[in-house]
Specification:
This protein is mostly beta strands. It has one domain: 7 Propeller (Methylamine Dehydrogenase, Chain H). It is built from no helices and 14 strands. The termini are far apart.
Length: 125
């Protein structure tokens, strides 16, 4: 059992297993995701109740009903998922060992736009 880094409003506890399962606690534990061979590292929920799950270079978007709506493969490994105001989602990726990229995704008219190319970055040395 693993406690992934999570940013979920109201601090709802979540756990993931080494079988690729993710459980969210909201009065009782409920399985919200399962993918064999995956070790989930990051979980976040935006202000619409949609859940974002990240591991290695993959990001999955699950709507509030538990349906996988999108899966995004990124060029660099994920090191953080952070919800922002007005449906904005911020994603940090680490390029190599010393360059941090920031990505953003905006919710528009009940659909989600593609992640923008890294607009900002910072060398960590």
């Amino acid at each position: 059992m693993i406690l992934p880094k999570s940013i979920i409003p109201g601090a709802l506890p979540c756990i993931s297993t080494n079988k690729g399962e993710v459980y969210l606690y909201d009065g009782a534990f409920k399985k919200i995701f399962e993918r064999e061979g995956v070790l989930v590292r990051y979980i976040s929920r935006d202000n619409s109740g949609d859940t974002w799950i990240g591991w290695w270079k993959s990001l999955v978007y699950i709507d509030s009903l538990g349906t996988i709506k999108d899966e995004i493969n990124l060029p660099d490994r994920i090191c953080g998922i952070y919800p922002g105001p007005d449906g904005m989602l911020w994603l940090a990726t680490l390029q190599g060992n010393d360059y941090l990229n920031f990505w953003s995704k905006v919710k528009q008219r009940r659909t989600r736009s593609l992640f923008s190319l890294p607009g900002t970055g910072a060398r960590l040395k």
